[in-house]
Amino acid sequence: MSSTPHDAIFRGVLGQPEHARGTLRSAMPAAVAEALDWPTLAQCPGSFVDPALNERHTDLLFSVAWRDGGQALAYMLFEHQSTPDRLMGFRLLRYLVRIWERWLADHPRAKALPVIIPVVLYHGDERWSAPVAFDAMFDVPDAVRPALAPHLVQFTYLLDDLSAIPDDQLRARAMTALARLVEACLKHARTRPDLIEILSSWADVVRDVVAAPDGLEALALVMRYILVVNDHVEVEALQAFLERVAGPEAKDTIMTAGQRLIEQGEQLGLKKGEELGLKKGEELGLKKGEELGLKKGERAVLLRLLRQRFGSQVSSDIEQRLAAASAEQISTWIERILQVATLAELLAD
Fold it and tell me: Which range, of 174-178, 279-283, 334-338, averages the lowest pLDDT?
């Protein structure tokens, strides 16, 4: 399965029950939230997304026990497109059926089905406008809809629309600091040129993330997400922000984030190779395709960092020099970029 930045941060954070718990609970009706035994929340393995859609959608399935016995399955699907999907209900129904089919295969003597609660986490630029009721998608004359209603498939999925939730309400959610920071970044990081200013109001949450076990590693994941999806944030500004609010160790997460972008090939490495028609070398029948994708990814990362830091100083001559440089030279420049004061110093032999 190909991974987008949204997939990576969704699975990396909200795929973990301790972080997903608050998001799921916030989306539930109060009576349902009170009836569930949240400490028992556990992720179920497997995916129910169509293979044709697996580059665009990520699903997570969790099980959680009822307080008074039995078991419910909470199903959370992440929609990472910027526009609402009017057929979301249909896609969810297909996933629900697949989950029940797998459950029945594992429980052949079952006489009843487990409850599955579909939850959609949405973070587009505009508020969600698609119907959340499945039967709203049917093309039925209004005059006969009341008579047909009892015979139509009916369910309503839960929608957690981050675009409609003020930041102060996001901050007040009963969830881990990392989950709150991730939701804030899902809401703002992709499009806001003033992201640093927005993050400044979340400084206490950033400090809480750093103070938690493995906090710097978690923060590096968030910073990597920001660097990939936001074209407005300069590396230096993000680094200065982290040093100001969380100390010099937090500042170094920018370098860690940049290194992992290269190592994992997210968007700019392996995916760049795919965009060039290499498909990880499958079309060519060579592993060379993957290697070339990674090399181009490293150059793309370096060029983006140079433009963010040195702006108009990055001329076409500089771009040509990057294109002609060896893989070893590119790696050296990437390691050096946050340690030098000028472009000339960076490119010096």
Answer: 279-283
Angle ∠(252,302,307) on CA atoms, nearest 5: 95
pLDDT at 33 over 90: yes
How far, in Å, CA of 124 to CA of 165, rounded?
12
Q: Is the pLDDT of residue 161 over 90?
A: yes
Q: Where are the domains of the chain?
A: 5-164, 268-339
Task: Give the whole-angstrom CA distance, residue 156 versus residue 154.
Answer: 7
Query: Are 65 and 40 a contacting pair, CB within 8 Å?
Result: yes
Q: What are the structure tokens assigned to 172, written together?
A: 């007040």
Reported residue count of the chain is: 349
pTM attached to this predicted model: 0.70
Residue 203 and residue 199: Cα distance in Å, rounded?
6
Rounded to whole angstroms, the Cα distance separating 204 from 172 reads: 12
Q: Which of 183-187, 224-228, 253-257, 267-271 has the highest mean pLDDT?
A: 183-187
Mean pLDDT over 264-287 rounds to 43
The helix/strand/coil state of 175 is: coil
Q: Check: CB of residue 17 under 8 Å from CB of residue 34.
A: no
Q: Is 252 helix (H, G, I), strand (E, B) or coil?
A: coil
Measured distance CA(120)–CA(161) in Å, rounded: 8
Number of Cβ within 10 Å of residue 19's Cβ equals 20
Q: Which residue has the tokens 């505009």?
A: 126
CA distance 156 to 310: 50
What are the beta bridge partners of residue 71? 65
